[in-house]
Specification:
Elements lengths: L1 H8 L23 H33 L6 H10 L3 E2 L9 H11 L11 H10 L7 H10 L6 H17 L2 H11 L1 E3 L2 E2 L1 H9 L8 H9 L14 H20 L3 H4 L1
Parallel strand pairs: 1-3
Antiparallel strand pairs: 2-3
C-alpha cells in the first residue's frame, strides 16, 4: 500500500512537445530590369540633391567670408555694355541712412522674418500680384541665380534664401545687397551710384539722396535719382518717413548693431 501511495503521489512529467518545423527561408525576389532602373534613379536623384545642397552651402559660406567679385547678372551686363561700374564698400563706409532707406523701401520687416515674408507672400497671392520678394530673396537672386521670371528660379530661391539667412548675418545681407544692386544701366552698388548721381561717396549720402537711390531700385533703368520725376520725389519722401520709423521702432537694429 505504501508503494502504491508513493507511486500515486509521484508527479507526472509533461510530454515533450515536438520541435516546430522550420519554415523554409523565403527566396529573395529578383528585381526586374525596370525595378533596378528605378532604384538606380532614386539613388541618383538623392545623391544629386545632396551634392547640389553641399555646393550651395559651400558657396554661401564662402561669401560669408569674402566679397562676391561679381554676379551672373553683372557679368551679362558687362558683356552687353562692354563694362560696368562697381566699387565695393564695407557697410561701415556707407551712410547708415542708406541702409535704413533701402530696407524701408524694399522690406520694412526685414529684421522680423527668416528670409521669406509669409504674410507678404500671402497678400501678393490674394491680390494676384508680385512684389513680395524680401531683400534676402533679392540678394540670393542677384548673387547666385539668374534674372527673369520662372518657377524653377523661384523654387531654388525659396530654398536658398533660408540657407543664406542661416549662414549670413542680417548686416552682411544688407551689405551685399547695397553692393550688387543695380542703380542705373551699368551702375552697380551704392558707391558707384552715389558718385554717378550726386558726385559723393556712399558714406556722405544725405537722407534725401539715400531715399532717392532707394526709390529707383525697383526700376533703375527707367528712373533717375538726380533728375527725379514727381513719382520718384513722392516715393522718396515716403521712404524718408519709413526710414525714420524703422529706426524709432527698432526694426533696423538687426543690421545696425
Amino acid at each position: 500500500m505504501g508503494a502504491m501511495a508513493e507511486t500515486s503521489t509521484e508527479k507526472k512529467k509533461p510530454a515533450k512537445k515536438p520541435a516546430p518545423k522550420k519554415k523554409p527561408a523565403k527566396k529573395a525576389k529578383k528585381l526586374t530590369l525596370a525595378g533596378r532602373v528605378r532604384r538606380f534613379m532614386r539613388r541618383v536623384v538623392l545623391w544629386g540633391a545632396l551634392a547640389v545642397f553641399a555646393f550651395a552651402l559651400l558657396w554661401t559660406l564662402l561669401y560669408a567670408l569674402i566679397n562676391p567679385p561679381t554676379t551672373p547678372y553683372m557679368r551679362a551686363e558687362a558683356h552687353r555694355l562692354v563694362s560696368v561700374k562697381q566699387v565695393w564698400v564695407d557697410i561701415e563706409d556707407i551712410a547708415p541712412v542708406m541702409a535704413r532707406s533701402v530696407v524701408a523701401a524694399e522690406d520694412a520687416n526685414f529684421c522680423l522674418h527668416w528670409g521669406l515674408d509669409v504674410n507678404a507672400i500671402q497678400d501678393a497671392v490674394e491680390r494676384g500680384r508680385g512684389g513680395a520678394s524680401t531683400i534676402s530673396q533679392q540678394v540670393v537672386k542677384n548673387v547666385f541665380l539668374w534674372h527673369g521670371r520662372s518657377w524653377s528660379r523661384k523654387a531654388i530661391e525659396a530654398v536658398w534664401t533660408p540657407l543664406t539667412e542661416a549662414v549670413w548675418s542680417k548686416r552682411r545681407i544688407v551689405e551685399i545687397y547695397l553692393n550688387v544692386a543695380e542703380f542705373d544701366e551699368g551702375v552697380f552698388g551704392v558707391q558707384a551710384a552715389a558718385r554717378h548721381y550726386f558726385g559723393v561717396d556712399a558714406a556722405d549720402l544725405s537722407a534725401t539722396q539715400a531715399a532717392r537711390l532707394a526709390a529707383i531700385l525697383p526700376s533703375p533703368k527707367n528712373r533717375s535719382a538726380s533728375n527725379p520725376s514727381s513719382f520718384t520725389r513722392n516715393r522718396a519722401a515716403s521712404i524718408i518717413s519709413g526710414a525714420a520709423t524703422i529706426a524709432a521702432d527698432g526694426r533696423s537694429d538687426c543690421f545696425e548693431n
